[in-house]
TrEMBL record, chains A, B:
This is Tryptophan synthase beta chain. It comes from Membranihabitans marinus. InterPro entries: Trp_synth_b-like, Trp_synth_b_CS, Trp_synth_beta, Trp_synth_beta/beta-like, TrpB-like_PALP, TrpB-like_PALP_sf. Coiled coil: none annotated. It comes from the Bacteria. The keyword Membrane does not apply. It catalyses: (1S,2R)-1-C-(indol-3-yl)glycerol 3-phosphate + L-serine = D-glyceraldehyde 3-phosphate + L-tryptophan + H2O. The modification N6-(pyridoxal phosphate)lysine is found at K112. Its cofactor is pyridoxal 5'-phosphate. Residues 77-414 form the Tryptophan synthase beta chain-like PALP domain. The keyword Amino-acid biosynthesis applies.
Length: 454, 454
């Protein structure tokens, strides 16, 4: 019998997070104060985050120890399995070997708890009583609700009103883990009340929800805020994915030739690829890395590398990022987790230095890939994860054309159990391809007054 | 760090199914022909099932070899993990050790693919082109769709109309695996057309859906029918659960004192318990076995042991079963998988011989247990599985009162990702307890003219 799964035991859960900044020749530029244009100090982040997370955000240490309490909670679902996709290979009739790391085995169904757990833990250690956050489609809100429940912290999630109304099951999932979920804009905050005063039927946006969550955290010393992607400490927490995958690829016969992951803000991409990137930097491997982004939100392939706000309304420091402009509104594709205007500072620097690649994919190709995957490998992938699968299929088909025996690894970052509406739309022929014109991109970028990163 | 998960490798996937009939002192009585009252021969089943499954249905062999092709497909998700529920134990402050076998890691989210895969395989071997089945809430239909896709057989699912309308995501899940799903009653069959002629707005029922699926299979030599529980071969296929669990309990320190599983038609209960029952029969263990059924459908605790039809409309042979009467309609509780009027013949015989126990649980206790489980162990359990959890909590509380260090194992037979509406209703205070009066039960049983099993 051919082996499908490469499985580690709990003692193989990594003991440290890998901070790639320590190994980068060219470090990411620091965030800037939007008023003064000067680099901000860690103290600017103190109203929002506990001290240890701020320390990790600016850390230059290569290995950051994972507390035992965090490893213990990781063991609820980690290590996650690594699969050889025998059935998909056969369907593609490709000489390529295809592997995937499956993060959908977490209770919340994605890789997001990898950072939600330590964020909840460090907040608990700092005496924080309540964490606020925003969520769009609900993946991040679910993960943080689960993590806060484990460490007995109150969790308040501001969920974009239109998602709150259209995705009641994600809200119920968060309630099941004890979180309070508010449709945003809400009457809880000044930001929310102002918007409701102007438009009582506002459908909300991620930008508004961030404003509400941040306002709640900033005004109460016992409340902090948590973010699920983009920031350095978030990406660093995710590196347990790639560390496990390296051990599993050793079991499977050796390192991959190419590593692929979907790209939203960068957290699942960083999680899988950074530990393999270390092998390139330290041990002379020549692994390629491909970030798969939607053609409707192509910051990596068509954006500018410049300073921009992390949020939609301009409340955060300026981050050096590949961006389409902070108020760019992507088409409402189903891969909600990839509808972010920018990329984290580390990943942006790596792309700028040609250490990683990116490609943009159209919707129909993505869903076709997702359905083929479900029909061969069984697991129904999230639309976000299906972007990675589409890139894998491109690589596998290229291997077939060129007659190469290539080894491909990708991050199946979440299952699609809560995304059935997306597949329903696909089968009903309602999925449209969205490719931006250059003038649409220019129109968004031309509004930015912030400096380019040289 | 305390170990949470006991993990096997793919080579530990069992090589044989365990057929408990071989070890039973008192065998289950044969099914009877409803017209003649005589035992039926295997040939009566030939229009519906392929030869090998009929052979297994009546087999007295103790070990039935699992074909390599089936083990290969099992390896997509098997072996499944066995967990020690440290967080739940802590929350209950119990001296009991609690373990659970988690079957929700299958792509379809429950234990059902354990039998769907071999059923699809044997049909494929027999040259069958199409399999029909019925589904209520959608668990079984999903599992069979997935299995048929793997073996390239067409799959047609007759889904109870009211579920078809209320659970579009289950339908989409089946479509994603390539199945055709029809709301039942449909215009595809005479049975369906007759009902629609009388009532064009019929909400359907499991009985009607069975009639349609069976009619389609019986009239086409290339089409067969598949059932997801109750029958002997189905229960036998599920015994891979318990066989794996025995190895895992050995890793965890020894056999459990009590094994608990939810009870619908008997398939997840049989799957976990039968291999442990063998240890009682062969090696003198004294493990207790508890079937958890809903108080609104209490065939094991309050039904009669007599011959009754397996379906609601009287199309099947008469099966010796604990039953509430084949046209008994349970309250519309959310645990759709437990809303079945009877119990499989083997399990019924075991209960009659006091080799297993049963208890009935009320809805609120069940959901309270499910939510506590989600908030401690992370995984959100299906309402069906939550019945088992409620029984576990009873045992753990008893252990605490009595100061015993008891070891409890239960079958977490599926996750609740597609059952969020149930939890939403629970949080909204809309979950009601349903306990039947004796006169309600008598009224249903008094209609039966079939003989008791002596």
């Amino acid at each position: 019998m051919q082996q499908r799964k490469f499985i580690l035991s709990e003692k193989d859960i990594p003991t440290h997070w890998y901070n790639i900044v320590a190994d980068m020749d060219e470090k990411p530029r620091p965030p800037l104060h939007p008023g003064t244009g000067e680099p901000i100090g860690p103290e600017m982040l103190e109203p929002l985050f506990p001290e240890e997370l701020i320390r990790q955000e600016v850390s230059q240490e290569k290995w950051i120890p994972i507390p035992d309490e965090v490893r213990d909670m990781y063991s609820i679902w980690r290590p996650t399995p690594l699969f050889r996709a025998h059935n998909l290979e056969k369907a593609l009739d490709t000489p390529a070997k295809i592997y995937y790391k499956y993060e959908g085995v977490s209770p919340a169904g994605s890789h997001k708890p990898n950072t939600a757990i330590p964020q909840a833990y460090y907040n608990k250690q700092a005496g924080v009583k309540r964490i606020t956050t925003e969520t769009g489609a609900g993946q991040w809100g679910s993960a943080l609700s689960f993590a806060c429940q484990l460490f007995d912290i109150d969790c308040e999630v501001y969920m974009v009103r239109i998602s709150f109304d259209h995705k009641p099951y994600r809200k119920t999932m968060m309630n099941t883990w004890g979180a309070k979920v508010f449709p945003s804009p809400s009457n809880n905050t000044e930001a929310g009340r102002n918007i409701l005063a102007e438009d009582p039927d506002s459908p909300g946006s991620l930008g508004i929800a961030i404003s509400e969550a941040v306002e709640q955290a900033a005004k109460d010393p016992h409340t902090k805020y948590a973010l699920g992607s983009v920031l350095n400490h978030v990406l660093t927490h995710q590196t347990i994915i790639g560390q496990e995958a390296i051990k599993q690829m050793e079991m499977a016969g050796g390192m991959p030739d190419v590593v692929i992951a979907p790209f939203g803000g960068g957290s699942n991409f960083a999680g899988l690829t950074f530990p393999f990137l270390r092998l390139n930097m330290e041990e002379g491997h020549q692994i390629r890395f491909v970030a798969s982004e939607p053609a409707s939100c192509p910051k990596l392939t068509r954006g500018q590398f410049r300073y921009d706000f992390g949020d939609a309304v301009g409340m955060t420091p300026l981050i050096p990022m590949y961006t389409l402009g902070h108020d760019f509104v992507p088409a409402p594709i189903h891969a909600g987790g990839l509808r972010y205007h920018g990329a984290g500072a580390i990943v942006s620097q790596l792309l700028h230095n040609d250490l990683i690649e990116a490609e943009a994919l159209m919707n129909k190709e993505v869903f076709e890939a997702g359905v083929l995957f479900a029909r061969t490998e069984g697991i129904i992938p999230a639309p976000e994860a299906s972007h990675g699968i589409a890139s894998v299929i491109r690589e596998a088909n290229k291997a077939k054309e060129e007659g190469q025996t290539k080894s491909i690894l990708f991050n199946l970052c979440g299952h699609g159990n809560f995304d059935m509406k997306a597949f329903e739309d696909y089968f009903a022929g309602k999925i449209e391809d969205h490719e931006l014109t250059q003038s649409e991109i220019d129109a968004s970028l031309d509004k930015l007054a912030t400096p380019m990163v040289e």
